[in-house]
C-alpha cells in the first residue's frame, strides 16, 4: 500500500494555501480503496499519499508488486476515481478538471497498448495528431522521437509493432508518452524487459525530457 509517501501532511496543506500552479503535481491525502468481493475483505491500494512534484523533476516511485503504483497512476490519469483525498495537476483538480488535464498529459502504461498492424511511425503520427501536431511540426516530432528511442535505424520505424521485440514495444510506448510536449508524464515501469543498452538509452531520454516537465516514474 502506497502511504505517507514523501511529504508530511502539514507541508502539503501549506502548499495548497499557495497557488498550486508552481507544482506539476500535488497530492493531498489521496486514497484508493478497493471493496472486497465474494466475501473477501476490501483493501487500500493507496492511503494517505501526500506528494508535491515541482516542474522539471523526475519523481521515482518505488515499491514491490501490489504496492499501489499502478492504482496511483490510474487515479492521476482519470481512469479511476480516488476514494477520498485530492490531487492537482498544474493547479487543476483531477476530480473536476480532467478534460483540461488530458491535453497536457503523457502516459506509458505498465502493459503496452499498441496496434499490432501499425508501424512504430504510424503510432507516433497517430498520437502526435491527437496532441494537435500537424504538418512539418508533426513529421519533425515523429522523426526526433524515433531517433531518441533508437527506433529509427534499420527500418524499425516502418515495421509493424506486432513484429517488435518486447524491448522495442516498451521503447515505442515511452516515445508515445513523450510526443506532443506533455507537461506531466507518467511512466509505469518503463524499463521492464529492456536490456542494459536500451535501459541506458531510456534514462538519457528521460533526463533530456524532464527539463521542462514533470515525470512520474515507477
Ligand atoms: N481493480 C482492482 N480491484 C481490486 N483490487 C485491485 C484492483 N487493482 C489493483 N488491485 C489491488 O490493489 C493492490 C495494488 O495494485 P497495483 O496498484 O496494481 O500495484 P503495483 O502497480 O504497485 O504493482 C494489489 O493488491 C492489487 O491486487
Ligand atoms: Mg503496477
Automatic annotation (TrEMBL):
GO molecular function per UniProt: ABC-type transporter activity; ATP binding; ATP hydrolysis activity; lipid transporter activity
PANTHER family per UniProt: ABC TRANSPORTER A FAMILY MEMBER 3-RELATED (PTHR19229:SF154), ATP-BINDING CASSETTE TRANSPORTER SUBFAMILY A ABCA (PTHR19229)
ABC transporter domain residues: 25-218
PROSITE patterns reported in the protein's UniProt record: ABC_TRANSPORTER_1, ABC_TRANSPORTER_2
Entry similarity comment: Belongs to the ABC transporter superfamily. ABCA family. CPR flippase (TC 3.A.1.211) subfamily.
Organism: Trifolium pratense (Red clover)
Domain of life where this protein originates: Eukaryota
Record lineage: Eukaryota, Viridiplantae, Streptophyta, Embryophyta, Tracheophyta
Gene Ontology annotations for the cellular component aspect, listed alphabetically: membrane
Name of this chain's protein: ABC transporter A family member 7-like protein
CDD domains found in the cross-reference section: ABC_subfamily_A
Amino acid at each position: 500500500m502506497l502511504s505517507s509517501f514523501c511529504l508530511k501532511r502539514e507541508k502539503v496543506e501549506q502548499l495548497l494555501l499557495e497557488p498550486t500552479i508552481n507544482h506539476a503535481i500535488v497530492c493531498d491525502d489521496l486514497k484508493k480503496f478497493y471493496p472486497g468481493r465474494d466475501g473477501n475483505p476490501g483493501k487500500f491500494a493507496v492511503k494517505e499519499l501526500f506528494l508535491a512534484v515541482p516542474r522539471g523533476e523526475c519523481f521515482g516511485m518505488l515499491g514491490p508488486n501490489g504496492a499501489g503504483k499502478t492504482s496511483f497512476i490510474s487515479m492521476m490519469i482519470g481512469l479511476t476515481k480516488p476514494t477520498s483525498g485530492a490531487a492537482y495537476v498544474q493547479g487543476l483538480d483531477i476530480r473536476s478538471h480532467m478534460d483540461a488535464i488530458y491535453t497536457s498529459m503523457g502516459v506509458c502504461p505498465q502493459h503496452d497498448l499498441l496496434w499490432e498492424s501499425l508501424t512504430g511511425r504510424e503510432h507516433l503520427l497517430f498520437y502526435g495528431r491527437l496532441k494537435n501536431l500537424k504538418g512539418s511540426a508533426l513529421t519533425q516530432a515523429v522523426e526526433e522521437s524515433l531517433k531518441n528511442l533508437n527506433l529509427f535505424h534499420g527500418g524499425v520505424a516502418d515495421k509493424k509493432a506486432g513484429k517488435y521485440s518486447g524491448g522495442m514495444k516498451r521503447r515505442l510506448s515511452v516515445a508515445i508518452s513523450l510526443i506532443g510536449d506533455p507537461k506531466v508524464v507518467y511512466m509505469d515501469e518503463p524499463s521492464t524487459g529492456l536490456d542494459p543498452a536500451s535501459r541506458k538509452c531510456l534514462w538519457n531520454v528521460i533526463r533530456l525530457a524532464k527539463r521542462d516537465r514533470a515525470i512520474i516514474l515507477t
